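In the laboratory, one determines a bound structure by crystallizing the protein with its ligand and collecting diffraction data. In a computational setting the workflow is compressed into a single prediction: the sequence and the ligand go in, and a structural description comes out. We illustrate the idea with nicotinamide-adenine-dinucleotide.
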Amino acid sequence: MLTVAVYDTKPYDREFLQKDTGATGIRWRFLDFRLMAETAFSAEGADAVCVFVHDQLDRRCLEALAKQKVKLVVLRCAGFNNVDLAAARELKIAVTRAADYSPYAVAEHAVALLLTLNRKIHRAYNRVRDQNFALTGLVGFDLHGKTAGILGTGKIGQITAGILKGFGMRILAFDLFPQTGWASENGVEYVDIDVLARESDVLSLHLPLTPKTKFIIHRGTLELMKPGAILINVSRGKLVDTAALIEALKSGRLGGVALDVYEEEEEVFYEDLSGMVLQDDELARLLMFPNVLVTAHQAFLTHEALSDISRVTVRNIMALAEGRPFVEGTVL
Ligand code: NAD
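The predicted complex, in structure-token form:
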């Protein structure tokens, strides 16, 4: 029987993991704080740790886990920029992730943000609740006939492109490894990133965070973007240089920005800070723009995605227990 310490646990994690426990005999130790070097002592007696996007598994943290004989890190997310994989390998700690959970959840959230922002539903909702039925300031644009630029055409990028194609948009794409078969079947055109920025009315980011993609959206890219264009980021906050983004928004050139992720989100996302003084000046500035929409890293939050994540998490823990290979495609 294996003990698994689950960090940064929220009620929905507990619910879905417990639902999938069945007769596995996994003993969950649900912890509501995050795993990092300073809290790693709490993994004492655990065979595996189950972590999410804001846990910080740097070398120090992994060394502390190795000392406590933790053999497996199971990420219940797709991104793995918060784990020092080289250190994990050296320390012989296996790392798996939830690689294939519903990419529709994330793509659909990107499109939900786009529609809300473009048609100003967030503002209309508040106005109507206040019995303000005026329409001034709520003009959007037709997506039909406009150009969408998809940065990153992996699982989520391809689905987002497909949905936007359904609106009648022209789709441009940029990726280190172009999927030429998919592109020709779906009428998608790969271009370089400058052309993508220059020609897109909607630019949507679907890249992992790596040293190469950090600040892929910087002052230069923002300057290339069409006046009135919309930027959507549901991938990782550090893909966008927030200071440059704020300058671009202040200049009035951008039509709007929708963010499900934010450069410094670790400090605030997933916490209820209502009634407190927000200490992050850049986030506070972003929240002041009428054409900025922020959700707190919730694109994965559907029943289907949570079920997929929980199922693969349990399967990988049982693979460790029974000495079987981990689920294909989830090992890092
Ligand atoms: P994926 O691995 O299927 O696709 C990523 C694509 O990015 C690949 O096609 C890859 O070739 C491309 N790429 C990588 N580095 C690049 C570079 N330097 N330049 C150009 N292209 C590059 O990943 P996915 O499942 O589509 O997920 C994409 C990202 O979405 C994840 O890495 C994660 O950070 C983020 N995500 C966010 C949420 C959320 O809740 N907001 C949920 C899931 C995933």
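The first strand starts at residue 3 and ends at 6. Keep in mind that any predicted model is a hypothesis to be tested, not a measurement.
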